[in-house]
Amino acid sequence: MTTPRDARTSPAPVLELRDIRKSFGANTVLKGVDLTLRPGRITALLGANGAGKSTLIKALSGVHQPTGGDILLDGAPVQLENPMAASRLGVRTVHQRIDDAIIPGLSVAENLVFEQIALGETPSVASPKSLLPRARKVAAALALDWDDAFLRQDVFELGIADCQMLLLARALVTDPKVLILDEPTSTLSQSEAERLFETILELRDRGVAILHVSHRLAEIDQLADDIVVLRDGRITAAQERPFDFAAAVTSMLGEGAERDIEQLVHLTGEQVALEIDGLRVFPEAPEMSVALRSGEVTGVIGLIGAGKTELAEYVFGESTATGTGTMKLGGKAYAPRHPKHAIARGVFLVPEDRAAQGMLPGWSIARTFSLPFLSRFARGAILQQGSETTRAAQAIADFGVVSTGPGQSVDALSGGNQQKVMVARWMQTPPEVLLLDEPFRGVDIGARREIAKRAREQAADGSCVVMLCSDVDELREIADRVLVLVEGRITLDARIDTVSDDEIVQSMTEVA
Ligand SMILES: Nc1ncnc2c1ncn2[C@@H]1O[C@H](COP(=O)(O)OP(=O)(O)OP(=O)(O)O)[C@@H](O)[C@H]1O
Ligand SMILES: [Mg+2]
């Protein structure tokens, strides 16, 4: 548990930002940011998607050069020409986009000690084998149970949660003075996040100044000593404990945004939409049979590795590897061998790894929006009329996508705004079955409510909505029925209002 710390008795600032500005062409993103980080304190940085959090972090980690303002380290002005310069001064950052930081073609161990190689502290000719002892030490310090086989494998083999842990471990290879984490938990399950929190708190106690970006208030409450809110390129609020989150959310999103989440009026679907029979999500898993109904939201919850993504991909025609099961959609045989077959039948999937699956660099928001429906096969799935641009403009307004308009390239959007585009894309037309894999990941509180509301509206209109997640709070915001998945087995199937959080969590860790 965090013990609140009093700023007045805290030591001198380690990092100070004064009037930091940053523009991209005519787009001024940071409009004069002042921020102070002190040793042994965790500062949480809050802000809506597109507020400028990642841009600020890039400016203070040497990725971007600020257009104006000063950065002071231990009281002295510094120029952070590049990320290496920042690293050398003890400012370590784990950026939001993990795929930029992972070096493909190298092993896990090489990726771990990559910066030492780049800084010349470890010879670049060092054999992967000679890096192992060092990599082992780093992994052990973070309590990662990574064996040598794991350390030797190509990073390409890793899932996103492991990539995230790898980058964290990399940031801790040398003792940082300042540690900056840009949404580190958005790809982690609860247990992995807890492990990360332990590490963060330990580092804090050792005197590291930490800047932590997150959209999860519970997590901020657990960790932070201070919170600051960035809105439209300016700090609009700063608080010490005890935090007033309602006020923080208001300064983040504006008046009226802090309204409580409405009590869900639960739906009960009558009709079976999708029947899955005798499916093994993993070769060694037992056969699973389940009927998913239209007119309600089913939440499938499980830890990472439970088989949620595999289940979703199977339904969406992306994997036939397990191949044992049969399905019926609306009472008729359904055996998609490709996502286009699924889309043609009105079965949509918002994937977990959205950036990697389905965003083409350089494409406009409008094009990205229509992408899955461009094939002749899938075109029938668009029931709504209206041009690509009109539909995109509507979604931009509904979901609050911060952009210059439907023509803007998706690359220039902030992480959360990219997520909104990818989720909104599959909500533009009423589906038979809508699978949402971790739909709240990376989106701000405003968008989270909008996504939940839309999903529930679609269910009320007769769609079968299935949300896959690993967080009980998220599940409660959206689901009518809960299915708990453990290693490809359903360990609990209940109306959500009949089970407690404890019962759900317990069945998530039930062993066979
Ligand atoms: N390289 C770039 N070129 C042009 N515009 C950019 C660039 N990087 C960021 N922006 C713009 O800066 C604004 C802020 O983006 P940023 O990524 O800092 O937001 P964020 O607060 O981190 O949001 P999120 O919560 O979604 O991660 C966005 O409107 C984005 O379009
Ligand atoms: Mg960001």
Description:
The structure is a single chain. This protein folds into three domains: 7-97 and 176-253, Rossmann fold; 103-157, no CATH class; 272-362 and 430-508, P-loop containing nucleotide triphosphate hydrolases (Rossmann fold), CATH 3.40.50. The chain contains 20 helices and 20 strands. It has helices at 53-59, 83-88, 98-101, 108-112, 114-118, 128-141, 148-152, 160-171, 190-205, 217-223, 245-253, 308-315, 339-344, 365-370, 376-379, 388-399, 415-425, 445-460, 472-478, 501-508; strands spanning 15-24, 27-37, 42-46, 68-73, 76-77, 91-94, 178-182, 209-213, 226-231, 234-240, 272-279, 288-293, 296-301, 326-329, 332-333, 347-350, 433-437, 464-469, 481-486, 489-495. It has a six-stranded mixed β-sheet with strand order 6-7-8-3-9-10, sandwiched between helices. A six-stranded mixed β-sheet has the order 16-17-18-13-19-20, with helices on both faces. A hairpin with a 2-residue loop joins strand 1 and strand 2. Helix 16 crosses helix 17. The protein binds adenosine-5'-triphosphate (ATP) and magnesium ion. Magnesium ion is lined by residues 53-54, 96, 182, 414-415. Residues 15-257, 267-512 form the ABC transporter domain. Keywords: ATP-binding, Nucleotide-binding, Repeat, Transport. This is Ribose ABC transport system, ATP-binding protein RbsA (TC 3.A.1.2.1).
Termini separation comes to: 32 Å
**What's the CATH architecture name of the largest domain?**
3-Layer(aba) Sandwich
Helix content: 25-40%
Structural class by sheet pairing and helices? alpha/beta
Proportion in β-strands: 15-25%
Q: CATH fold name of the largest domain, please?
A: Rossmann fold
- Provide the domain count: 3
- Spell out which ligands are present: adenosine-5'-triphosphate, magnesium ion
Query: Low-confidence parts lasting 5 or more residues at pLDDT below 50?
Result: none
CATH class of the largest domain: Alpha Beta
Q: What is the CATH homologous superfamily assignment of the largest domain?
A: P-loop containing nucleotide triphosphate hydrolases
